[in-house]
Structure formats: C-alpha cells, structure tokens
Amino acid sequence: MRIGILGLGRIGAFHAETLHTLETVDSLVVADPYADAAKAAAERFGAEIADSPEALLAAGVDGVVVAAATDAHPALIVAAVEAGVPVFCEKPVARTMTEGVEVLKAVAGRDVPVQIGFNRRFDAGFVAAREAVRAGELGKLHTVRSTTLDPAPPPAAYIAASGGIFRDCSVHDFDVIRWVTGREVSEVYAMGGNRGADFIREAGDADTTGAVLTLDDGTIAVVSNSRHNARGYDVRMEIHGFADSIAVGLEDKLPLRSVEPGTAFPAGVPHDFFMDRFAAAYRTELTAFTEVVAGARPSPCTVEDALEAGWIAEACTLSLREHRPVTVAEVKRG
C-alpha cells in the first residue's frame, strides 16, 4: 500500500513514522510547503517527495493523510475525494462550521471514504468503556465526567488561530462522549476563566473551562478543560450508571497526586504529552485507516461525526459568551 502525507509538522512527522512501521504500508509519498520538512521525512523514511498536493494525488497513492494547517483541510479533503483517493484528515474538518458543512456537501454521495482524526476512539480504555456501556453493564446512565488538562498552553500564535478552547481542546471530550454513550447532546451551559497566560486572555479565549451537557436521554455530562496542569497531561472519563460505574485513565501514569494516608496510587511517572498518552491509539487509528483504504471497513469517524462534535463546541462558545444555556439545535440553525 502506498500512502501520501500532506503536511510534515509535529503531527505529520509523527504519522509518517507510524505509517512507516506498518506492515501493510509499502511506501510513502510526502509533500510540505517547507522543503526541508519534506526532505527530512524522505531521508528518514525513504519517502518520495511530491512538490505539491496535486502532484502527490497524481503519484499513484492508495490513500492520503492530511496533517496540514487547519485552513488547508477543506480544499485537501475535497481534492482527495475528487481524485478518488481515500483520505484521513486530522480534526477539525475546517476552521468554521460553515466551511465544514460545505465539505460535507462536497463529499456526500461519493464512494470515497473520509476518516477524521479523533484518536480517543482508538484508545483501549475508551474502547472498553464504550463496549461496557453498549453491553448494558452499567445499566441506565445518569452522569458522565470527561476531563482534558494540558500541562502547559501551546504557543500564542497557535492559541490565536485555534478557534478557542472549546473548538480546539474540548471537542475531543465532546466527540468521545457521543461515541461512548451513543447519545446526542441537546443542550449545553459553559463557563470559563483566565488565571494563567495573559496571551490567552488577549486572544479572547479562556484558559480553564467547564461545561455541563444534557444528553438527549437526560444523562448529564460534565466536561472540564484547562491549559494549565502542572503535574502533566490528564485525560480521563468517568461513566456512572444505576448498575455500575467505570473510569478511563485511572492508571499509574495518571498525573494526579493522592494525599490519602497510606495510598501509593498512582505510582508511575505522569503523562506529560498527548503523544505519550495516546501513542498506541494513534497507531491503531492509522491501522484502521489502512483498512479503510483496503475496503475492509467503513470510515470509523466520518465528516458528519466530526461536525456533530463541532456543533457542541459552537454551542459552548456561544454559551460562554452570552452566559446562558444554548441548545445544539440553535447553533445549527445559525
């Protein structure tokens, strides 16, 4: 299998390394506006260099991974689909929901699969949680808690172009809540604050947020996010039902310190980076994409799936700005 990679920044280079080790991938073709990035990937992985996205799509690739800047996502997804090449694209589909909806319209009805990168769907803990919920092991659910805490903020330039913490960070929580529970979010109430980096406040964003989501069956989901967690990268989920309760991320590398007397848990070195926490999930995710390319399975995360998480982020952004509950239906109406 011959796979193309568009964009060789931090995540693109990481994906190139992962793909290079998969038995089903025979060769890579890479393209990046920065020639040095493409050259480095070519030298490291024996990849062929294409001088443009168009040249890469014409180079006989079986599938393409889009890891370019967000602004480029819509055009690259559509170009790949029009060329008949299955495409994996890192989230988000587009910078705005309007652009995302246009992408959905452009790919709808075409027999070319598109997979959007929400890596938590491939993490062993989240997979096990979903299976437990779907098997009825917890009984009827009443509460879900989902947490994403970064050890430190990304650079100021990234924050300014991110679209805000709900669209950039919390959207992973929103997607995995939908995926694990199998329910849709009907209403949100969000809050946020700034007690850390000044450049986040200056960008009009919050550095720490909370959101209460009401799911369509009445289950309450509480989402907590922050750009400041000195102990490490903390991603967890609790799911509480009338028959049982389970947790994802409750393991020895959990970046949390217990002060209970005589308690040694967690005893491991805390996770300090998302690539550390989700290394195995990324590999499973790209393995799944090669199966999509081979026609062995449908896309495990479609454009429509990604947009649903995006609408929840839009509702939270509006709720924070206007200090009121917002329904997802309201933001979809525009």
Task: Give an account of the 3D structure.
There is one protein chain. This protein is α/β, with parallel strands linked by helices. The protein has 2 domains: 2-112, Rossmann fold; 121-277 and 309-333, Dihydrodipicolinate Reductase, domain 2. Helices cover 40% and strands 21% of the residues. The strands form 2 sheets. Strands 12-11-7-10-9-8-13 form a 7-stranded mixed sheet. Helix 1 links the parallel strand 1 (2-6) and strand 2. 44% of the residues are buried. The mean pLDDT is 96.
Question: Could you list some keywords that capture this structure?
Answer:
single chain, 334 residues, alpha/beta, Rossmann fold, Dihydrodipicolinate Reductase, domain 2, 7-stranded mixed beta sheet, 6-stranded parallel beta sheet, 13 helices, 40% helix
Write the layout of secondary structure elements.
Layout: E1 2-6, H1 10-21, E2 27-31, H2 35-45, E3 48-49, H3 53-57, E4 63-66, H4 73-82, E5 87-90, H5 97-107, E6 114-117, H6 124-134, E7 141-149, H7 156-161, H8 165-181, E8 185-193, H9 198-202, E9 208-215, E10 220-226, E11 234-241, E12 245-248, H10 274-277, H11 279-293, H12 303-322, E13 326-327, H13 328-333
Parallel strand pairs: 1-2, 1-4, 2-3, 4-5, 5-6, 7-10
Antiparallel strand pairs: 7-11, 8-9, 8-13, 9-10, 11-12
Helix pairs in contact: 4-5, 5-12, 6-8, 8-12
**Silhouette:** globular
Strand order of the largest sheet: 12-11-7-10-9-8-13
Helix-strand string? EHEHEHEHEHEHEHHEHEEEEHHHEH
CATH class of the largest domain: Alpha Beta
Poorly predicted parts: none
From the alpha carbons, calculate the radius of gyration and give it in angstroms: 20 Å
